[in-house]
Amino acid sequence: MTGRRSAVITGASRGIGRAIAERLVRDGHRCLTTGRSAASERVPGADFHAVDFEDADAVAAFAASLTGLAPDVLVNNVGLNIPGPADTFAADDFDRLYAVNLRAPFLLCQAVIPAMKARSWGRIVNITSSRSRLGKAGDAPFCATKFALDGLTAALGAEGAPFGLLVNAVAPGFVSTTSTDDAFAPHERAGIIHKIPAGRMGTVGEVAALVVWLVSEENTYMCGQNLVIDGGLTRSHTERWFAPEADRDR
To answer: Domains along the chain?
Structure first.
């Protein structure tokens, strides 16, 4: 971005959100990040605001503060997943997913859009998931919220573009993070990697680089899109039918 812009990045205590915040700070921008409360969650060089996104009052208060702050950039990265079969999924857990993955991003967008329109410049990126493009058995409520966030992105993109406000989404596939590493046993991780055309999981830095470009002044026309970054997995539909050992022999 040309000059210093102000940016808000939610869920920036670790993983993709932290990588985005660190990159924007390194590029010289004024950043405000959110996390729970621990000092270790703070990104050096960025301001910090503790927010529990499952708490409706806390989200409302934070949204109100953004109205006054009027940031140039908003990255809605905070997210929650509670997997489980739909027929036994608890309604309270569905409400938690809805509150964090959809309601909170909408309220934060609502808070920052007026000032972005007034200055005829603004950038919003919603972090969705490859599960915003493809359904997964045992993950229906999560998929529902991420599909909805994609729809919100498309609609806000159409509303904002005439005012110089570009709204997009980024949908990461399998990205190597602490959470991903903890979620899969080594053999499961190997099986996932075997199906990715790029032959590996993505990195948080690769996702951050895409987000940083979308919120930059170099992006003047990309709007309303949900960009999947997954090493080619969701677009390939080509299972590598041979076992890894057989592939190496070919």
So the answer is: 6-249 (3.40.50.720)
